[in-house]
Amino acid sequence: xxxxxxxxxxxxxxxxxxxxxxxxxxxxxxxxxxxxxxxxxxxxxxxxxxxxxxxxxxxxxxxxxxxxxxxxxxxxxxxxxxxxxxxxxxxxxxxxxxxxxxxxxxxxxxxxxxxxxxxxxxxxxxxxxxxxxxxxxxxxxxxxxxxxxxxxxxxxxxxxxxxxxxxxxxxxxxxxxxxxxxxxxxxxxxxxxxxxxxxxxxxxxxxxxxxxxxxxxxxxxxxxxxxxxxxxxxxxxxxxxxxxxxxxxxxxxxxxxxxxxxxxxxxxxxxxxxxxxxxxxxxxxxxxxxxxxxxxxxxxxxxxxxxxxxxxxxxxxxxxxxxxxxxxxxxxxxxxxxxxxxxxxxxxxxxxxxxxxxxxxxxxxxxxxxxxxxxxxxxxxxxxxxxxxxxxxxxxxxxxxxxxxxxxxxxxxxxxxxxxxxxxxxxxxxxxxxxxxxx
Amino acid sequence: xxxxxxxxxxxxxxxxxxxxxxxxxxxxxxxxxxxxxxxxxxxxxxxxxxxxxxxxxxxxxxxxxxxxxxxxxxxxxxxxxxxxxxxxxxxxxxxxxxxxxxxxxxxxxxxxxxxxxxxxxxxxxxxxxxxxxxxxxxxxxxxxxxxxxxxxxxxxxxxxxxxxxxxxxxxxxxxxxxxxxxxxxxxxxxxxxxxxxxxxxxxxxxxxxxxxxxxxxxxxxxxxxxxxxxxxxxxxxxxxxxxxxxxxxxxxxxxxxxxxxxxxxxxxxxxxxxxxxxxxxxxxxxxxxx
Amino acid sequence: xxxxxxxxxxxxxxxxxxxxxxxxxxxxxxxxxxxxxxxxxxxxxxxxxxxxxxxxxxxxxxxxxxxxxxxxxxxxxxxxxxxxxxxxxxxxxxxxxxxxxxxxxxxxxxxxxxxxxxxxxxxxxxxxxxxxxxxxxxxxxxxxxxxxxxxxxxxxxxxxxxxxxxxxxxxxxxxxxxxxxxxxxxxxxxxxxxxxxxxxxxxxxxxxxxxx
Lengths: 439, 290, 212
Fold this sequence. Notes:
The structure holds three protein chains of three kinds.
Chain A: H1 2-17, H2 22-45, E1 62-65, E2 73-79, E3 89-95, E4 103-109, E5 131-137, E6 150-157, E7 162-164, E8 168-170, H3 182-204, H4 214-229, E9 233-236, H5 245-264, E10 268-272, H6 275-291, E11 303-305, H7 310-324, E12 328-332, H8 338-349, E13 352-357, H9 363-369, E14 372-375, H10 378-387, H11 390-423, H12 429-433
Parallel strand pairs in A: 9-10, 9-12, 10-11, 12-13, 13-14
Antiparallel strand pairs in A: 1-2, 2-5, 3-4, 3-6, 6-7, 6-8
Helix pairs in contact in A: 1-2, 3-11, 4-5, 5-6, 5-10, 7-8, 10-11
Chain B: H1 2-6, H2 10-26, H3 37-48, E1 54-60, H4 66-82, E2 86-91, H5 97-110, E3 119-124, H6 129-137, H7 139-142, E4 169-174, H8 180-191, E5 194-199, H9 208-212, E6 219-221, H10 222-232, H11 238-266, H12 285-289
Parallel strand pairs in B: 1-2, 1-4, 2-3, 4-5, 5-6
Helix pairs in contact in B: 2-11, 4-5, 4-10, 6-8, 10-11
Chain C: H1 2-24, H2 30-68, H3 73-92, H4 101-132, H5 138-153, H6 156-161, H7 165-200
Helix pairs in contact in C: 2-3, 5-7
């Protein structure tokens, strides 16, 4: 379009300069012919956007509620046109009523904003490049209310002419399920079912091999030593609250330790950072003493609250260690920077120290200062190891199978993604998306 | 002899560390500091925000972590105010409230910013991670008033900000939980804002997996990270000053480790190589004297 | 009836809230979001009340120590005194810190004491490293070398002496450390799901106090 306009001006100038001599007229004719031939040839190879093609209104224009959201968002899509290019631009308009007035929401080059640009999985989104896509969202200045109709138009312009498409309306609606997360949901169900299955299996066939965990073999030794020395045992459940898995594991192990201290008649001290954890541990210890047949030996104040402040708690526990010199210190659960302060002070008092944590950052500190350290998942395995209960052992088996599945998926996924990257194929994308997290 | 040195009184080590910290603080050398990409990413993101964007700084630490995280807060706030961002300060740690308020209002007044108009400090609200969920739904419900008793919804600085969805950038300066991970799991994952982190050196390595996956867009780790940010904003403060001391203590510890291994290998093999924890049993004479 | 209230009812509640909590992640509807907000508000209230439980325990334990004059009972007295003083001054100052007694306690007691505790970490790291960082085995030697490289490369002096030390330490952090941590994270997450499933289905009920 632009090119043809310039050509006309050029031919005009030529004619004006050479209007009189005949020879020149012939020459002028030749030049015109040459230029015309060049023009025709050049139009054959010119980009489509530079052609004098009239702009057609966007076709297959649709406005729809965006799937898998809480409302307040509308998607617009229309077919990509042959004239799409960087010089052509699309304009998106919106109105509250069909009669308007329409306000422009966005303008962008016609070779951008495709449906394939949207990061959604293949099972919930048509990731084709044949359609343009624009998402209208609520902003502080423009709220899209759920349940109300909004009206949209898309126009295409090249700066000289503008062509407007039909009007479409849509109602933003909140959805009940985010289909993009269905892979996550299915994996969750699969793993949950696997755990329940392995527990049931373990109940039927309880003889499941558990590898030796030296730290847990030492629990009995530590309690025995404390009994011999007539000193208490200090048990910490970590710094997290009851919603933390490591705290739950720590309380389960506490139950096993408490049974042994009840049997040996050794004093147990459990200082806490969280009042809810304290209340639960009181129940657990009480139950353990009951099960061990020593309810008389149970003391309600064996579990006590100090403070939920990190370093105030650390100072108080260190004080207990230095004053009462417990014969054994158990550091189970999740720890932060206080880990080394506690374990190093305990090492200084000469206590046997057994740590168990999934706080990987604190593991080096525990490993260097404690006699035995349960690393990561060993903490979760501890309760199964100590009690040998089929439920707990079955859970471990389920976790191991889940881990094997993930390991296999990671290896296959890495190989496929690498091949896909090297070859430049999208063939593996659908499979790989099954293991991706989508919002 | 080597065995004796291996059993050195730990107070000797404490004195060495104290000297290695004190001397460089009194007589700094000013060694050059390389800027790491993860710190630069936080800086670049703030640079890319247009004036008037909403920047939420959550100071999730207590006074114990002040030496590492306070300089980060100072540098970040200076940067945000220089860029004319709307700054919202808050904390999820009750014991950090006073300190957090002081740094937010202090840096704001240095830049001539008006409370309630250019910045606010929301203060502390109990509930830890639940506060983040509340803020994601309705910010004014989580903090009906700011730290100074003004209604949050009426503040000009909060114009157009009803929840975390309208916040452009959140940086959590954290010394533990609730902290950066909580802001990701309960905040960014659900409400879609961009998130950066600033943490103590001891927990920084744990956040690198989140950095690579884009769950956080940048990370300022420990005093070193704070020093790098100070250099980026052209404001050499306490973090830069502390880096020489950190260099010295690191080298003292490296020296101690090398020495202890030297002594360990010089110690006669029979029965004495295991001077470590294996013999540190309760009641042993050595333990009693330690 | 007592058994129902102590066992069955909490298990029903656990099941309902557990399943609802898990499903909430997949439901974007505003009702689901509102429910999450409501629960988070409840949690905040429960946490507030739980503090009363904690403070009662603290007072009880230290009162018992003072009453029976056990060794170190004086420290228990310090606990009571410092708690009382902080509460009284805090109420007197109406919770404000600027220029009040409460602010003074915060700045000159809490801040200083907490700073001291955290600073001790540096000293303890050094003494623990000296005592325990020995190349007793191949694994210990790897740990030792990695620790030295990290400490060398993360400070300006190390980078000044050997410019490559910084990038090497950075590589260790962002590649080796990240890979190891991801492995641990996967294990922890699976353990988390397994434990959650057990709790939701009432298989794990030790948190209720024993099993029956």
